[in-house]
Design goal:
It is a single chain. The protein is mainly beta. The protein has a domain at 65-145: OB fold (Dihydrolipoamide Acetyltransferase, E2P), CATH 2.40.50. Helices cover 8% and strands 39% of the residues. The chain has helices spanning 17-22, 24-29, and strands at residues 31-35, 41-42, 59-63, 67-76, 91-98, 103-109, 121-131, 137-145. A five-stranded mixed β-barrel has the order 4-5-6-8-7. A hairpin with a 5-residue loop joins strand 7 (121-131) and strand 8 (137-145). It starts with 16 loop residues before the first helix and ends with a strand. The mean pLDDT is 85. The chain binds zinc ion (ZN).
């Protein structure tokens, strides 16, 4: 730690900066893949692969829906914040069924464990994920409760 990087630099798990860069549109825009032949959708992107349903090779970029419903909730509570994942404990990691049918795994932020229950509506928000080994922050999607 120093003045330039006041937060702890996590070393338990590292991200490849090149891979992080290549997958930036997935993290920023929930960009996945769609099969042009049968219409199946995936997240994350199926880069250089074929469609597992129809074996077609015409996969195009597809921006997934940015709202959905919580399917399964996993409360990660070790009694203290997990290094590299911010100051909040417990973390709520959920499987979310997006409105277009794609299932995604994400952390739920700004929500209490009582709010984040299966069936609750959530929407995509943009948050800091964690630091890369270079010290640069990695940003990307997380989900928050849909409050009207
Ligand atoms: Zn297909």
């Amino acid at each position: 730690m120093n003045d330039q990087f006041p937060e702890i630099l996590p070393r338990l798990e590292s991200y490849s900066t090149m891979r992080t860069w290549r997958e930036r549109f997935g993290r920023y825009l929930l960009r996945g893949s769609r099969c042009a032949d049968c219409g199946s959708k995936w997240f994350p992107r199926r880069d250089g692969l074929n469609c597992p349903k129809c074996a077609g090779l015409k996969l195009e970029d597809y921006d997934c829906a940015r709202a959905g419903t919580i399917d399964v909730v996993q409360k990660e509570d070790m009694g203290y914040p997990v290094m590299g994942y911010g100051e909040t404990a417990p973390r709520l990691v959920c499987t979310i069924k997006l409105d277009d049918g794609v299932t995604i795994l994400s952390e739920i932020v700004d929500a209490s464990p009582e709010e984040a229950v299966p069936g609750a509506r959530v929407k995509m928000v943009f948050r800091k994920h964690k630091r890369e080994e270079t010290g640069a922050w990695m940003y990307g999607y997380m989900f928050a409760m849909e409050r009207d």
